[in-house]
Amino acid sequence: MIKYSLFKEGRKQFTVSSTESVFWEMKVVKAERITKNCCILFIVINLLLTACSDLPRDPKQTLQHIEGNQIRVGLVENPPWVIRTNGEPAGAEVELVKNLAQELNATPVWFWGSEQKHLEALKNYELDLVIGGITSDTPWSKEIGLTSPYYKYRVIVGVPASMQPMKDIKGVQVAFKSGEMVGKYLRKKDAVPVGVDDLTQVNNAPVAAPDWEIEELGFTPTEIDLYKEQNVMATPPGENALIKRLDEFLSEQKPEIKNLLQKETAQR
What is the mean pLDDT of residues 137-150? Predict the structure, then answer.
C-alpha cells in the first residue's frame, strides 16, 4: 500500500494511505459543494427580500392625507348598510365611518353614486373609501383594495312563532325582499319565492333574510341555509396602511355591528 507524507510536526512524520487520501479529497469536494450551495441560497434569499421591499406600498399615502383632514367616502345606497335621506346619510356603515373619522380627527365628505362609478373612482384614487354592503366576492377585488371581511352572516329561512320550524321548503311559499337575489336561492330549494316590499308586514308565512334580521323580526330561525355573505369596505389599490387601520377599527366595532343593522332595520 502506497503511503503519502502529509506534514511533519516536530520530529514525527505523519503519513496516510492512498485510500485515506481519496477519502479526504472527497470530503473536501463535498465541503466545497455545500459552501457553494449555501452561497447560492443566500444570494437567492437576498434577491427575494429585495424584490419584496420594492413592491408598491401606500403609493398615495392615503391614511396620512386623511388624518386631521378629510375622508372622501363614496356611498352606494343599500339599506340598512347605507341609507339615503333628505339630510345626512344614514345606515350601519355610515355610522361606522363617522366613528372612524372621529378617531382619525377627519371630516367625512359624502358622495352618492352607483357602485360601478364609485369603484372606478376608487381605482383612480379619486375617493378614499367606498361603502354600501360590498361583499368579499366583488368582481373588483383585483383592481381595488379591500378590508378583511368584518361582518359575516347567513341568509336563512325563519318562521313566525306560531309555526313549527321546518326542514324542507319544497313547494312552500317563502317571502323575501323584492329585488334581492334571495329569490333564486329559494328556487334552488324548490320553494315558491314571494317578493314583498316590507318583511315586517309578513305575519303568517316563512321569510328568507339574513340571520340578524330574522332575529329582529322575532321569527324563529330554521336550519335551512340559503347562502353566506362576508362584508368588506373598499379602498384605493395598494393603500396597505389604510387597510390595516380599517381592519383594526372594524375588529373593535364587531360587537356593535349587529345592533347597528337591527337598529337601522327597525327604523325603516
Answer: 97
User: pTM, whole model, 2 decimals?
Assistant: 0.78
* Residue of higher predicted confidence among 79 and 50: 79
Please give the grid coordinates belonging to residue 44: 437567492
Give the start-end residues of each E strand in the chain.
3-9, 12-17, 70-75, 107-112, 129-131, 145-146, 151-159, 173-177, 192-196, 207-210, 220-231, 234-235
Cα separation, 93 vs 1, whole angstroms: 89
- Looking at the DSSP bridge assignments, the partners of residue 235 are 145
- Which fold, 62-150+232-267? D-Maltodextrin-Binding Protein; domain 2 (3.40.190)
132 φ/ψ sector (left φ>0, alpha ψ -120 to 50, else beta): left
Q: Please state the domain extents for the chain.
A: 3-52, 62-150+232-267, 152-229
